[in-house]
Hints:
The chain has 437 residues and is an alpha/beta fold.
Amino acid sequence: MKISVIGCGYLGAVHAACMARLGHEVVGVDVDEAKIAALAEGRAPFFEPGLPELLGEVSGTGALRFTTDMAEVAGSQVHFVCVGTPQRRGEYAADLRYVESAVDALIPHLRDGDLVVGKSTVPVGTAAGIAERLGREAPGVSLAWNPEFLREGFAVKDTLHPDRLVYGVPGGEAGELAVAQLDEVYAGPLSEHTPRVVTDYPTAELVKVAANSFLATKISFINAMAELCEETGADVTRLADAIGYDDRIGRKFLNAGLGFGGGCLPKDIRAFMARAGELGADQAVAFLKEIDAINTRRRVRMVDLAREVLDGSIVGKRIAVLGAAFKPNSDDVRDSPALDVAVQLARQGADVRVTDPEAVPNARRLHPELRLVESLDEAVVDAEIVLLLTEWQEYRELVPAELAEKVAGLRILDGRNVLDPVAWRAAGWTYRALGRP
Ligand code: UDX
């Protein structure tokens, strides 16, 4: 099929490359010239495992091109809208301006029989509004809402082999046609028996925010237990193992630590609260406020723990922060817990050096005031305390005796509960973690 993808960020660039990999002829469009130039040369504009290889593979076939010219979407039968919906400055609600401008730019190039497919995470009710507009301005064009559940770090795999497909479609014949078109797009994953849920617009929109709210709730639940473990001397990692054996609960997403960040979970739960408020249903998701608060408290607790271990003051103390990305295998620093902690420590007078295997350039753009260094050695030299805040594999594999030779004080805080306390203590370190004795 001929497919266009509007918006080539973490979601769109991966989607475009994967659609080409599934055998379609794809054009990716974005207003960011630098991003398009990189993609057109087969380079990924952000760190995502497997994406450079995939771009190399599909660029050679001529099945994938990138442009800043929206007119080039003409001739595509299916148009995916993959633009961002960030949190509005100073508010909880989502900023829909990129979705609106994508639709504005797209409409003049649509032809009868085309299908517009929304993938962006939007407040419930957005699809119905866009469908109404298409009905007025491009009456032969249909709309489907097809939320995306990819995880950064696994984006290529999650797109080529999704765990489910959700189609929100209109009723009647238009809906049947949209389902048939989407089935053709996803013929590859469907042949692997991927479950497919066909539903209406509001359900499809809600599926996405409900899924992310549930994941956020799971993480904050275990972090709330961590708070109690800290008061009682219990160990939250053992607690998670034990409750996780109940397969109704499951062990996944029960890793206590510094909590969730990134471009999705935090802003999605906030946008959900804002939308529920507009609908007069704020009580239904009032618990998300607590989920958000538990999450934010972990960051404060980490700063307090550093102060405690440094005998009551961090002022002027050399602190090494390992990790700036919101999670490993990503260079994304949006709402990163690690970076947030580093910024708080620096603001409170500590001499902080932050490093990350991939996210230093993005972190530097966001926080030019922070001292960001390229290597672990530069970060830990003369450090009185080391904070492991993003669990990259190379930090998980640190050898206590080797690190001991580089630092000034043998103190380590494990913000992700990934180190072995016994080994670190045996090597003479003061080891502390969130939710562990
Ligand atoms: C998330 C959803 O998983 C994905 O389905 C959706 O499409 C987008 O949002 P992503 O933001 O890539 O994906 O990250 P995810 O792997 O879900 O992690 C989110 C955050 O939660 C990270 O900061 C991570 O460190 C944290 N986390 C995750 C925990 O603190 N504990 C856990 O047990 C799991």
